[in-house]
Amino acid sequence: MSDLDLNKKNLSQKKSPGSSQKLKDQVADAGADLKQRAGDALKASTDVAQDKLQDASDAAKDVASGAADRLQDQVKQQQRSGADFVERFAGNIRDAARAFESDAPFAARGISSAAEYVEDAAEKIRNGSFRDLVGGATEFAKRQPAAFLGISVLAGFAAIRFLKASGGQLPSQQNNNWKQASSSYRGDKS
Asked: In this structure, are residues 122 and 86 in contact, taking their beta carbons and an 8 Å threshold?
């Protein structure tokens, strides 16, 4: 082997360890750079996802709040309508008490007491909660069970009258209508 061949061999051996170290460093740098870029992309996409989730959460809260407000408005409107109905009912009870004043003053006092309770109930319906109304009804039933029973009967009659006036049919009427319709379909004459 000549000196030229030996020099080439020495040069290639000297280049080889240095160049593989340089290649390793470049690969490590590229890997670190890729890792940094992937981390940055992950952080950016996480931030975007969190922002979108927060936006969706805020929108859902707004929708729920709006629905709750509408529902609360409807409940208040129904509450006022119910209170007006109960006030009219109390007026009818007062009229009944006046009718009994001359013939049965004792009954008139009881009916007037019931009318006062119904007026209080109307006020509780208008301004209070359902829990207040139930508590008041329970207390009244304990104090004056006969008057409570009378009011219950009158309320039942008023509810039936209200349903008839509003065009609603009682279940027994619906059943009779169904029987009539089915018998006319079959050709029966009942």
From this structure: yes
Q: What are 72's two structure tokens? A: 């609360």
Tens digit of pLDDT for each residue in 75-103? 788 878 888 888 888 888 888 888 888 88
- SS3 (DSSP) at 144: coil
- Token pair in block for residue 122: 């109307």
Those residues with Cβ within 8 angstroms of residue 80's Cβ, 6 or more apart along the chain or in another chain: 126
How many whole angstroms separate alpha carbon 31 and alpha carbon 44?
Answer: 20
For residues 148 and 141, the answer to whether their CB atoms sit within 8 Å is yes
CB atoms within 10 A of CB 58: 10
DSSP 128: S
Burial label for 118, CB within 10 Å (0-12, 13-18, 19+), is buried
Q: Quick one: which of 82, 108, 81 has its CA closest to 95?
A: 108
In the chain, what is the greatest distance between 2 CA atoms, to the nearest angstrom?
148
0.85 surpassed by pTM: no
